[in-house]
Amino acid sequence: MPRSLRQRKQVEILSLKDAVKKYMRDGMICAYSGFTGFNRNPVAFAWETVRQGFKDLHIMDRHGSCCTWLLNTVGALKIFETDWMGWGEMAGKLDISLERRYKAGQVIIEDYAHGAMALRYLAGAIGSPFIPYYAPLGSDLYNPDYDALGRAGLRDGKNPSIAKKKFIQIEDPFFGDGDVMLLPAARPDLAILHVAQAGDRGTARWRGVGTIDKEIAFAADKVIVICEELVPESEMRKTPETNQIPFFVVDCIVEQPWGAFPSSVPFYYDYDAPFMRGMDAASRKEEDLKKWLDEWVFGPKDWEDFMVKLGAKRLLDLKADSVTGYSTRMMRGKKPAPRMKMPLSVARSGF
Description:
Radius of gyration: 21 Å
Number of strands: 14
Distance between the termini: 59 Å
Shape: globular
Order of helices and strands: EHEHEHEHEHEHEEEEHEHEHHHHEEH
């Protein structure tokens, strides 16, 4: 049976600590916003999740991120349903804690293709139980021997959010164009999205890459929006074409400036690659990782104290300019990024 239509939601505005306490629970299936470890990761929410001690989480993610990196450092991630097991191109790529735990049999990894995960969320967003997809036929991603959730006995129907099959291969019944894969919809319990602005009724927007955040919001049972700025809903209605998330799918809003650090929020602040490299370096040895967690996760009294610890100079250097959307003060290789004098398209056209 298809899931019933949800009732109109009444959004609530909570602090970071209270939102995690109310909406998180052990064993929950969660999805995070953003793109890899560099764009709009809801890091503050994952950070607070670790601090409150939630465990056995099932992350159904389009990518690895700073969030999954944090969860892996304390063993809070039990199932990782994804299409990429890294977390940051400039931070070592491989999540060392995830590799360590996977080899020890402490985490289950279910692998799909990039496009497959995107389409699974699209299916969840439109209320379809499955969706057809061609790529990557012939690969071991569609080898039943590598169905990790099936091998673990978790496709028994007891959890309505875990599909009874990883895929079904059928012959195209309409055009006869060969075989096609039917992929199950993604149905997370909770979506956590970090955005630039949110109205006080829940409408949300961002600038820059969006990946499949809109689909994640529509596919999830509950949606938490973490925003840099909380503004009157009337402000969001002035330019409705710039909004991506409608108020009626959002359950909770948290206003948490700098809540995506060390990833970026375009036109607010840039990502902090040196900080992420420090995270990766700490994960190489368990004793170093413990020191890092004590200093950066369990040491600060709250997220604002974390920001104070980073220091004003670092935050000012990360601040994005209003034209390019990124910082012109951060080092890009051996020198900072140049200030934009003319859009590239204009320079190339000669006008």
